[in-house]
Amino acid sequence: MAVYTDITEVELGAFLREYDLGELLSYKGIAEGTENSNFIVHTGSGSYILTLYEKRVEKADLPFFLGLMEHLAKRGVTCPLPVHRRDGAVMGELAGRPAAVITFLEGMWPRRPTAAHCREVGVALASMHIAGADFALSRPNALSIDGWKKLWSGCRERADEVEQGLEAEVAADFAALEAGWPSDLPAGVIHADLFPDNVFFLGDRLSGLIDFYFACNDAFAYDVATCLNAWCFERDHAFNLTKGTALLAGYQSVRPLSPAEVEALPLLCRGSALRFMLTRLYDWLHGPDGAMVKKRDPLEYVRKMRFHRQIGSAAEYGIQPQ
Ligand SMILES: Nc1ncnc2c1ncn2[C@@H]1O[C@H](COP(=O)(O)OP(=O)(O)O)[C@@H](O)[C@H]1O
Ligand SMILES: N[C@@H](CCOP(=O)(O)O)C(=O)O
Fold it and tell me: Which UniProt key words apply to this protein (predicted)?
């Protein structure tokens, strides 16, 4: 459960008086999530999500994240809407943290994603890429190669505590990724963390996307790579070609990948696996130790890095000729 910063009823009541949401009826910390502190809040006018932004979220980036949700929602991507305060602002401060209230989205994230879920995610990801095209703000990806290096310098010395030989393995990956990382692929606003727990379904239909707090401008195909990693591996760590095929077909039904994007996919998958391995490794070694937070396993992503190293071409992920 991710609640790093707790709040009192009195603090929350005072915070909500800046909004037109009716009286506070109840609130409770949410038993999911990793990065921020989230609460479900019931008021006289309905249910909302209150987020207190923690260490990885820069206050200066909040207008990008919250503005993006409003922009995407207007273009038909179902996602939460930031609630405006009486003074028009979409964020305030609570318990010393930047904080915002967003609308509650119905649905559940899939605990065991199927190929049908993967196809829907591919469609939604491509639709989001297109809908973000005219978003006025931009934000560089703070977790691309330079950001990975900063994380790595904070955990390199202790990497072998987690897995013998990991230090040398990751150093070799850095060298290969830096040498070949593409810089001229089609790019725009990407979600950058579209894992199953950030996609809601009602029955078999995708009902919305949440958690835009890593969103940034980067290569669209990098976002596809992140989804292949997050959605298409089984619990025994095997890549599921049926799911990969479904996700890529869903994506390409809305936005076909260019030959350069297809060619870059194995390296992008490898880079994205390294990125998530590094945030997990960093948190594994340094916290975050919230009262309620489940640490994620870096070794799951070490295995994915190893898988992608031996991939010859994107055909092995299930890409179909267009
Ligand atoms: N708009 C929303 N509607 C309904 N539930 C939400 C919404 N936003 C977040 N949640 C719930 O809170 C959990 C954590 O949210 P998330 O944004 O993923 O947190 P974090 O950024 O800390 O990882 C989600 O798994 C979901 O259960
Ligand atoms: N998806 C990341 C962790 C970020 O957590 P989220 O709850 O914001 O998706 C990972 O699995 O490492």
Answer: Amino-acid biosynthesis, ATP-binding, Kinase, Nucleotide-binding, Threonine biosynthesis, Transferase
289 falls in which pLDDT band (50, 70, 90)? low
Quick check: 3 and 292 in contact, CB under 8 A? yes
Which residue in the block uniquely carries the two structure tokens 């930047």?
98
**For residue 86, how far is its CA from the centre of ligand 2 (angstroms)?**
32
Return mean pLDDT, the chain: 95
Cα 315 to ligand 1 centre (Å): 34
Q: Is the pLDDT of residue 290 over 80?
A: no
Using CA positions, which residue lies closest to atom 15 of ligand 1? 33
Extended strands (E) in 36-121: 37-43, 46-52, 92-94, 97-103
pTM: 0.95
Q: Length of the chain, please?
A: 322
Q: Which three-class secondary structure state does DSSP give residue 92?
A: strand
125: closest CA among 33, 231, 255, 233? 255
**Ligand 1 pocket, 252 CB below 6 A?**
no
Q: Which residues contact 191 (CB under 8 A, 6 or more apart)?
A: 125, 128, 198, 209, 212, 214, 215, 223, 226
Q: Nearest C-alpha to atom 23 of ligand 1 is from which residue?
A: 33
61 in ligand 2 pocket by Cβ < 6 Å?
no
Atom 10, ligand 2: residue with shortest CA distance: 276
Nearest to 273 by CA among 242, 243, 319, 310: 310
Cα 22 to its chain centre, rounded Å, is: 31
Q: Is the CB of 226 under 6 A from ligand 2?
A: no
Distance, CA of 248 to CA of 33 (rounded, Å): 26
Give the separation between CA 39 and CA 50, rounded to whole angstroms: 5
- The full set of domains in the chain, from first to last, is 9-103 (3.30.200.20), 115-317 (3.90.1200.10)
